[in-house]
């Protein structure tokens, strides 16, 4: 006989640990535990049987893997947190006693922790990290737009806005933006980076207030992790693209409200300088950079300044140039046509959609958001200008002749005293609403501007991410409803497909109308038609009859199918039957949703021509 | 010493200025001070006027009429006077007003609130402005002296230039340690120096370098061989509903809006209502933005994650591929005729071996014999109490059926039989020479001459109750009966040829529900409430126990081949057993919504039927194969509906018609339906 098995010594009882047990084991406070879990990405697990995992108790607790907690116990950050606890005690004691110099010494030797190893642990490869930066980007962009307060320090916000600008800069530079969606919540962007779709949400530019029911500590812990993660990711992205990271910031221009412009020009200039001075480096990137210069920087004076700054920076960092040289030794402009690299190939493949706006010059009127549309237009190669009220650094003024489009978001006002020049300008340029830019990007082509002209009612703005499969598609609905209107057939419920079916299978229906059951094919239809004509029936009514019969027959067939299905359902096992029923339920619900939307569409369409 | 002398002079010099302030001194309690510049030190100083001990003192200046001095005033409490004046005359007690006067004084006299009780004169006296000033200052926490200046310049009496003390305080000689460097301090310092040299003590790093995290290519080194953690699920991408300018059909109606507002936050399908803005500039800030990001983070670190495989299949693919129903004809699919028993529940029916006759019994005690083809009643018998079971003898050379009532079995010969068969039947049931009687509690009594056709009656033991089932052996000589009184003697096996009855079981576990003879082998099935036991009658032992997993078995039938058994239960389940295969069911079907009442295999066609309390009859195609490898094929064919429910009871029994794919069903509504193909 084997040894007696004791309860709670193996299986789920050992594999799982309640949260309070974990906190007890780690000997840290709940807040520290929470912080560790966030940083290490450890989350509770659902045991198959809560009773078995919790020594027979079914009390509501969260469970963690015992192994996860074991890993946490060896975490260096945990030690640092303990040190910090001791430090906090010491410093409060020193402050309480008024020992200022000791307090200052303590403050200088304050324990800090680094998250590098955690980043490496959580994201084994760079691709893993790219795949998971969605949330990080959302948070960074949110905090970049928050006002500072006693809990959210200004330096944190500054760092977030710097990271946000660096990301936008990279996306603009690599031309990797793919989709944009103006939603109620904010603006969704989707970029394709290393074949991974990165989606992030940026709130509209309003002052956000942190609600009272939100735990800021949790958000700040996440933000801490995200800042580090994004730092490393951007470093790698920039260095892989042959750019210097961090891109130097021109403080004076930043103060003047240049936004991304405070960074962007520098980055591009520096890169060009590096490649020029060495006469090596990626040719594709050189070309890309030149293009970027053309589009992004138009002001010659700026360029001149920046060359100097760039050269200084370059001199200060010779090691990176060496790296560049080592990585791309076969560069040189002569080698391009003979040796197309993978990157150049991918560049050519991408070129069509990403240079969408390159032939055009845009001017943003002052009520459009400059940061958003500058980013959008430049990501697709457009030249952009803006009035000084939206910030400095605009390469063109409003009177520039090269402007082809003006992005304007206000109703039309007829100005009485317009000079001839202004009239001429107004005639030459196209005045479009901001949605045009986004719809063009999503469509991948330049759309007709008339639909989006200033003051017109905009066509609906659809999500480029599409709906769920099988959901109602408004684009399809439009064409269908048009057909319906053209035919003026008051169809009650059938869709397009059923109509087609009718045309195809109409033969069978007619067979019944004339009681010729044995005959099939087109002949019977014709015979039926002739018979109907002979009986003095009009063609329209005949058609209607045919359809009615057709529908009846379909209904009957459907009922038969339903019966057979019900029969088949009997033989399913309980589990499968439940699955089947769930699926059917979902299908039915989706169909009902689609149906209501289609019905509403039809109602709207019916009303519209009546009003015209 | 010198300074003191100075001070003395100073005081004297200031005396004339002090007298100047004397004129206004009667207003003040304290004599008014005077700030002058000292002639000696050159600093400003405050001088108080001299106080003459006789006339200038507090008490001497007041002309207090009462001269008794500082004695307790209550000594004069009983006297009309309060003391004596300077001349020795009594000072009379002042008139003391009543409470009303006091009150009026507080109202009328504006100075009453600034007056205080004077003990000496025994009356309220108004306070002087100086006294009020002192009170005010004390209240404010200030120095009571009005002239005191807290911010006066410091006067250095003993320090400062020219006031150093020259002479030493003690005459002890200067110790050595005052000028020699300390050895111990040096040792201590050298210890630190050595530690620094050896690198044991490291100075704190400059603050600026460690301020910002160093960035480097973290993914340069190969990753660890641990499996990477699962990435967190991404939030759903926005759909057209989220657009700032959605198509109009997405906009909610008023009803939808109200419904959305009334549902709880977590039950809402969308976290916001779709809204349409005519231009981008009008779109407001989204007030739930931070809240939603926070919720996402809570999900990331607080929500347990389960990896689920999303089945992206057509639900129809789950349904097994079955042969087409139409290819499995014939089977009954319509109701051809209806035979009615009135209101009584028809519990039992049986069809004759030639398939032409049906006998049915109801709860009212009526047994009807009628024709299948036309539904014409031929004969009717009435018994006392309910009819529990009716069963035709399977023999084809004779023709009779058995009716089970309370404690009795009646053997009945139908009318209008051909004479050959009638004769054979009579000789089988009531032979001229009776076989020798055996010892048994059961009595066989024959009554051959009777008009109503009841030719033989078996009297079961008196307490056995209603006979609820009669099962014939294939050859028609043996029949088993089950009575519903669930005592030990509920099962009997009767042998017609020997007129002998025996109880096969002395003791049986559980209440017997049903029994069945195996069609080929000498086996006997006994269904108790939960299990089906298979006994070998020849060897008299248990062969196997089938475990259907049903809580209460209601019905059972065996396939004509003898290898398959179906068992139905009151808990809606039907179990198909392959006797060769296992004790556990090969297939469990749950399709009836109420209890299964009856099951029957067709004797020749591959059909079986089940009836239930939900009022439906389900026809199945049940084909078995002789090779052991192929599983039996079960195909549901048709649901027959036609019976009404009565007190929660539906179709109580179904029976197939021999040699025809027809079904007869008896319902609790008193109707018997014949279903034809």
TrEMBL record, chain A:
Residues 486-507, 550-612 are annotated as: Disordered. Residues 580-612 have a biased composition (Basic and acidic residues). CDD domains: BRCT_pescadillo_like. GO terms for molecular function: ribonucleoprotein complex binding; RNA binding. It comes from the Eukaryota. Component of the NOP7 complex, which is required for maturation of the 25S and 5.8S ribosomal RNAs and formation of the 60S ribosome. This is Pescadillo homolog. The lineage of its organism: Eukaryota, Fungi, Dikarya, Basidiomycota, Agaricomycotina.
TrEMBL record, chain B:
Residues 76-332 form the BOP1 N-terminal domain. Residues 1-13, 51-63 have a biased composition (Acidic residues). Residues 1-75 are annotated as: Disordered. One of its GO terms (cellular component) is preribosome, large subunit precursor. Pfam families: BOP1NT, WD40. Residues 14-26 have a biased composition (Low complexity). Keywords: Nucleus, Repeat, Ribosome biogenesis, rRNA processing, WD repeat. InterPro entries: BOP1/Erb1, BOP1_N_dom, WD40/YVTN_repeat-like_dom_sf, WD40_repeat_dom_sf, WD40_rpt. It is found in: Nucleus, Nucleolus; Nucleus, Nucleoplasm. WD repeats lie at residues 339-380, 589-630. One of its GO terms (molecular function) is ribonucleoprotein complex binding. GO terms for biological process: maturation of 5.8S rRNA from tricistronic rRNA transcript (SSU-rRNA, 5.8S rRNA, LSU-rRNA); maturation of LSU-rRNA from tricistronic rRNA transcript (SSU-rRNA, 5.8S rRNA, LSU-rRNA). PROSITE patterns: WD_REPEATS_2 (PS50082). Belongs to the WD repeat BOP1/ERB1 family. Component of the NOP7 complex, which is required for maturation of the 25S and 5.8S ribosomal RNAs and formation of the 60S ribosome. Component of the NOP7 complex, composed of ERB1, NOP7 and YTM1. Within the NOP7 complex ERB1 appears to interact directly with NOP7 and YTM1. The NOP7 complex also associates with the 66S pre-ribosome. This is Ribosome biogenesis protein ERB1. The gene is ERB1.
């Amino acid at each position: 006989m084997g040894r007696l098995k004791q309860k709670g010594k193996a299986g789920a009882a050992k594999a799982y640990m309640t949260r309070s047990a974990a906190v007890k084991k780690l000997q840290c406070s709940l807040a520290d535990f929470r912080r560790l879990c966030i940083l290490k990405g450890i989350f509770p697990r659902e045991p198959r049987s809560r009773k078995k995992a919790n020594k027979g108790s079914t009390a509501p607790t969260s469970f963690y893997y015992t192994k996860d907690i074991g890993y946490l116990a060896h975490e260096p950050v945990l030690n640092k947190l303990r040190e910090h606890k001791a430090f906090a005690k010491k410093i409060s004691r020193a402050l309480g006693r008024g020992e200022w110099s000791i307090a200052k010494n303590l403050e200088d030797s304050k324990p800090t922790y680094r998250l590098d190893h955690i980043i490496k642990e959580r994201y084994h490869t760079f691709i893993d990290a790219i795949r998971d930066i969605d949330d990080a980007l959302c948070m960074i962009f949110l905090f970049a737009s928050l006002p500072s307060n006693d809990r959210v320090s200004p330096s944190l916000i500054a760092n977030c806005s710097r990271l946000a600008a660096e990301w936008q800069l990279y996306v603009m530079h690599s031309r990797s933006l793919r989709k944009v969606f103006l939603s109620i919540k904010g603006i969704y962007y989707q970029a394709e980076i290393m074949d991974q779709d990165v989606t992030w949400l940026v709130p509209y530019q309003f002052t956000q207030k942190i609600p009272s029911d939100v735990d800021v500590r949790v958000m700040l812990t996440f933000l801490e992790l995200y800042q580090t993660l994004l730092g490393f990711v951007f470093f790698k992205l920039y260095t892989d693209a042959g750019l210097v990271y961090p891109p130097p910031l021109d403080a004076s221009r930043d103060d003047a409200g240049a936004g991304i412009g405070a960074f962007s020009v520098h980055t591009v200039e520096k890169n060009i300088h590096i490649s020029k001075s060495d006469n090596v480096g990626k040719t594709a990137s050189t070309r890309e950079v030149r293009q970027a210069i053309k589009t992004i920087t138009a002001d010659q004076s700026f360029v001149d300044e920046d060359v100097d700054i760039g050269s200084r920076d370059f001199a200060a960092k010779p090691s990176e140039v060496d790296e560049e040289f080592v990585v791309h030794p076969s560069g040189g402009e002569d080698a391009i046509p003979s040796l197309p690299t993978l990157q150049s190939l991918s560049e050519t493949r991408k070129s069509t959609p990403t240079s969408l706006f390159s032939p055009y010059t845009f001017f943003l009127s002052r009520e459009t958001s400059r940061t958003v549309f500058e980013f959008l237009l430049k990501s697709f190669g457009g030249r952009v200008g803006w009035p000084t009220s939206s910030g400095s650094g605009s390469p063109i003024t409003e009177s520039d002749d090269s402007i082809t489009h003006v992005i304007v978001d206000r109703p039309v006002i007829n100005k009485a005293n317009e000079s001839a020049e202004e009239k001429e300008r107004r005639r030459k340029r196209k005045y479009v609403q901001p949605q045009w830019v986004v719809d063009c990007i999503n469509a991948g082509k330049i759309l007709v501007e008339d639909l989006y002209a200033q003051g017109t009612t905009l066509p609906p703005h659809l999500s480029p991410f599409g709906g769920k499969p099988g959901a109602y598609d408004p684009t399809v609905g439009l064409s269908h409803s048009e057909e319906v209107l053209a035919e003026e057939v008051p169809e009650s419920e059938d869709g397009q497909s059923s109509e087609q079916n009718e045309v195809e299978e109409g033969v069978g229906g007619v067979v019944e109308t004339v009681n010729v059951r044995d005959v099939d094919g087109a002949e019977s239809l014709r015979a039926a038609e002739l018979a109907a004509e002979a009986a003095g029936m009009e063609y329209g009514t005949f058609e209607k009859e045919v359809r009615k019969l057709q529908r009846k027959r379909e209904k009957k067939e459907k009922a038969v199918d339903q019966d057979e299905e019900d029969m088949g359902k009997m033989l399913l096992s309980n589990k499968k039957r439940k699955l089947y029923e769930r699926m059917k339920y979902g299908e039915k619900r989706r169909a009902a949703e689609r149906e209501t939307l289609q019905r509403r569409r039809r109602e709207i369409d019916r009303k519209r021509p009546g009003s015209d | 010493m010198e300074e003191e002398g100075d001070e003395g002079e100073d005081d004297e010099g200031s005396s004339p200025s002090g007298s100047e302030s004397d004129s206004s001194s009667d207003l003040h309690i304290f004599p008014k001070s005077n700030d002058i510049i000292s002639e000696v030190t050159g600093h400003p100083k405050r001088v108080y006027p001299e106080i003459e001990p006789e006339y200038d003192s507090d008490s001497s200046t007041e002309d207090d009429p009462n001269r008794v001095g500082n004695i307790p005033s209550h000594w004069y409490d009983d006297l009309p006077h309060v003391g004596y004046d300077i001349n020795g005359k009594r000072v009379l007690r002042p008139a003391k007003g009543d409470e009303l006067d006091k009150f009026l004084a507080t109202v009328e006299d504006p100075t009453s609130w600034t007056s205080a009780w004077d003990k000496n004169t025994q009356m309220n006296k108004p306070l002087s402005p100086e006294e009020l000033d002192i009170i005010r200052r004390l209240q404010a926490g200030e120095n009571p002296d009005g002239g005191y200046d807290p911010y006066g310049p410091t006067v250095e009496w003993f320090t400062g230039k020219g006031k150093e003390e020259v002479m030493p305080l003690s005459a002890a000689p200067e110790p050595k340690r005052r000028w020699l460097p300390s050895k111990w301090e040096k040792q201590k310092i050298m210890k630190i120096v050595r530690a620094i040299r050896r690198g044991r003590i490291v100075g704190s790093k400059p603050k600026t370098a460690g301020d910002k995290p160093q960035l480097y290519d973290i993914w340069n080194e190969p990753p660890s061989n641990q499996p990477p953690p699962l990435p967190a699920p991404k939030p759903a991408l926005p759909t057209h509903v989220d657009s700032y300018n959605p198509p109009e059909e997405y906009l909610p109606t008023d009803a939808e809006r109200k419904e959305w507002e009334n549902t709880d936050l977590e039950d809402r399908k969308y976290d916001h209502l779709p809204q349409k803005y005519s231009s981008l500039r009008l779109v407001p800030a989204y007030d739930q933005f931070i809240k939603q990001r926070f919720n996402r983070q809570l999900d990331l670190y607080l929500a347990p994650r389960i990896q689920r495989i999303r089945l992206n299949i057509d639900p129809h693919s789950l349904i097994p591929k079955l042969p087409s129903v139409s290819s499995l004809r014939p089977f009954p699919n319509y109701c051809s005729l209806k035979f009615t028993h009135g209101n009584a529940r028809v519990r039992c029916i049986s069809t004759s071996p030639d398939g032409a006759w049906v006998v049915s019994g109801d709860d009212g005690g009526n047994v009807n014999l009628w024709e299948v083809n036309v539904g014409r009643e031929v004969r009717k018998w009435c018994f006392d109490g309910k009819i529990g079971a009716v069963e035709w003898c399977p023999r084809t050379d004779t023709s009779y059926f058995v009716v089970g009532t309370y404690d009795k079995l009646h053997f009945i010969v139908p009318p209008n039989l051909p004479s050959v068969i009638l004769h054979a039947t009579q000789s089988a049931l009531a032979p001229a020479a009776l076989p020798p009687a055996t010892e048994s509690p059961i009595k066989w009594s024959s009554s051959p001459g009777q008009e109503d056709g009841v030719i033989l009656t078996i009297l079961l033991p008196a307490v056995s109750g209603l006979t609820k089932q009669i099962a014939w052996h294939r050859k028609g000589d043996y029949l088993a009966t089950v009575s519903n009184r669930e005592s030990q003697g509920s099962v009997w096996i009767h042998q017609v040829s020997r007129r002998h009855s025996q109880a096969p079981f002395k003791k049986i576990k559980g209440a017997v529900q049903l029994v069945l003879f195996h069609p080929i082998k000498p086996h006997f099935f006994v269904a108790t409430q939960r299990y089906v036991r298979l006994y070998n009658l020849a060897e008299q032992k248990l062969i196997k126990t089938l475990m259907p997993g049903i809580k209460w078995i209601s019905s059972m039938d065996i396939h004509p081949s003898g290898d398959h058994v179906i068992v139905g239960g009151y808990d809606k389940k039907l179990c198909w057993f392959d006797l060769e295969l296992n004790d556990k069911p090969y297939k469990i079907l749950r399709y009836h919504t109420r209890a299964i009442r009856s099951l029957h295999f067709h004797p020749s066609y591959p059909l079986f039927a089940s009836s239930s309390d939900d009022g439906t009859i389900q026809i199945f195609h049940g084909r078995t194969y002789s090779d052991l490898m192929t599983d039996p094929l079960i195909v549901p064919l048709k649901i027959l509906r036609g019976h009404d429910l009565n007190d929660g009871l539906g179709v109580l029994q179904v029976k197939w018609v021999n040699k025809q794919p027809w079904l007869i069903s008896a319902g609790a509504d008193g109707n018997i339906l014949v279903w034809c193909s």
